[in-house]
Design a protein that fits this description.
Number of strands: 13
CATH architecture of the largest domain: Orthogonal Bundle
Number of helices: 12
Helix content: 40-55%
Shape: elongated
Mean pLDDT: 89
Low-confidence stretches: none
Length: 436
């Protein structure tokens, strides 16, 4: 087999393959004979179909199959011998001017790029840090207490206030007509929890049981109900019941109800702090990892193989369709989703993947067995039965591949932070958690 490789544009290459015609014909004959031993056709016993009949019926499909196999094998061998790192599948076409007794093919394909990573000492990375404060522990305690609150009906002359659960009937109208979703009976919500629009809560706050009130409400322009977004409605609301919230005390009983081993207030706060610190660690790692990856990509030069970008685009579009299907969208698998929507994301992912792979290869940052074990144990630590979670990870190769990818990213993050200009920045717990 003779092979030539021609450079086209950037990462694109063209390889010309020639195969002896007799090797194709020989393999076709071998496969037809094998097929004849098992093929079933009307009028013949199995294994007794004449070769001429088998050949007439199956010669074309077998020839096509052999051509695909032989050319594919020849391409793989040639690419390996030429030490080419092929990205995606080659586009193969038969040439008409082949020498006598031979078949010739052109294979056009892309190769993975050479990745040039600049001096990381010149890269700048902002590294965030955050602490779990007493205020964060107090806020978490308040959330836990609210989750376990009970309600008792208020006296008829007591007005609704923040924290109360109210049961109401309401009806909203636009131009004198009730609109979809604008009417309900025996509807409950907690005043001050932000479940309703502020104007609605403001109107109900201070009302007494049995009282009715009419008020105007302006829907925000970005309201999720597009039919009413940016419009004004007139609402009639009637309060039927007001219940005051009773929050459990922060004491040993609350600690026991939460399954805290050391059922004391100190033990409860300590357990909350430990869980929050674990969450802070993972969030900081994710934020700092993103900053490192952005700096790494900005510090690298490479061409993107179109085949890899296209494959990533297809994965993203498929993921979007699966998401639509999960939401109950009809014919989600046929939804027209333009590639361009995801192209920047696909290109970013491919670029990052190639840069990270090169850095890992050049600096031996692969995941070590002890790192995999430690990461799994850390993930399992927050569960009631950690060892079962560890076994769950170890029993599935796909889950272990995900763990390995995370550990490699962590190794890359640590490596870059050890080389780059790092700007330390402390942020509040609430800022890290995305709270106000």
């Amino acid at each position: 087999m003779a092979v030539t490789v021609e450079n086209l544009e950037k990462l694109e290459r063209k390889m010309t393959l020639t195969l002896p015609l007799n090797s194709i014909q020989s393999e076709v004959a071998t496969r037809l004979k094998k097929l004849a031993r098992t093929v079933k056709m009307d009028g013949f016993r199995p294994g007794k179909v004449p070769m001429s009949v088998v050949s007439q019926r199956y010669a074309y499909s077998v020839h096509y199959e052999v051509m695909n196999d032989k050319v594919g094998e020849a391409f793989a061998v040639a690419a390996n011998e030429a030490r080419l790192r092929v990205a995606g599948q080659p586009r193969i076409s038969e040439k008409e001017d082949a020498p006598e007794g031979e078949l010739a093919f052109d294979a056009i394909f892309e190769v993975y790029p050479d990745v040039k990573i600049g001096d990381l000492a010149n890269a700048e990375v902002e590294k965030l840090s955050a602490e779990v404060s007493d205020a964060a522990i107090d806020k978490t305690l308040d959330i836990l207490r609210k989750q376990r609150r009970t309600f008792a009906q208020r006296a008829a002359d007591e007005p609704a206030q923040d924290g109360d659960r109210v049961t109401i009937d309401f009806e909203g109208k636009m131009d004198g007509e009730t609109f979809a979703g604008g009417k309900a009976e025996d509807f409950q919500f907690i005043v001050g929890d932000g479940q309703m629009l502020k104007e609605f809560e403001d109107a109900v706050r201070g009302m007494k049981s049995g009282e009715s009130r009419t008020f105007p409400l302006n829907f925000p322009a970005d309201y999720h109900g597009k039919d009413v977004a940016g419009k004004q409605a007139d609402f009639l609301v009637t309060v039927k019941k007001i219940e005051a919230a009773n929050l459990p005390e922060v004491n040993e009983e609350l600690a026991r109800s939460l399954g805290i081993a050391d059922a004391t207030v100190e033990g409860l706060r300590s357990e909350i702090k430990k869980n929050l610190e674990r969450e802070v660690k993972f969030r900081l790692l994710a934020r700092n990892k993103n900053a490192v990856m952005d700096a790494l990509v900005a510090n690298a030069e490479l061409d993107l193989p179109n085949a890899s970008v296209q494959a990533e685009l297809e994965r993203l579009v498929e993921g979007a369709r699966a998401d639509l299907k999960q939401r109950g969208i009809k014919d989600a698998d046929k939804a027209p989703i333009p590639d361009d929507i995801f192209r920047p994301q696909a290109e970013k992912r491919v670029r990052l993947g190639l840069v990270v792979a090169e850095l890992v290869r050049a600096n031996e940052l692969q995941a070590r067995p002890e790192q995999l074990k430690a990461h799994i144990e850390e993930l399992a630590a927050s569960y009631e039965k950690p060892q079962e979670v560890v076994r769950w990870y170890l029993s599935d190769n796909s889950r272990m591949v995900e763990v390995e990818a995370v550990v490699i990213e962590n190794n890359v993050t640590d490596f870059v932070l050890g080389k780059a200009k790092v700007n330390e920045k402390a942020i509040s717990f609430d800022e890290l958690m995305g709270q106000n």
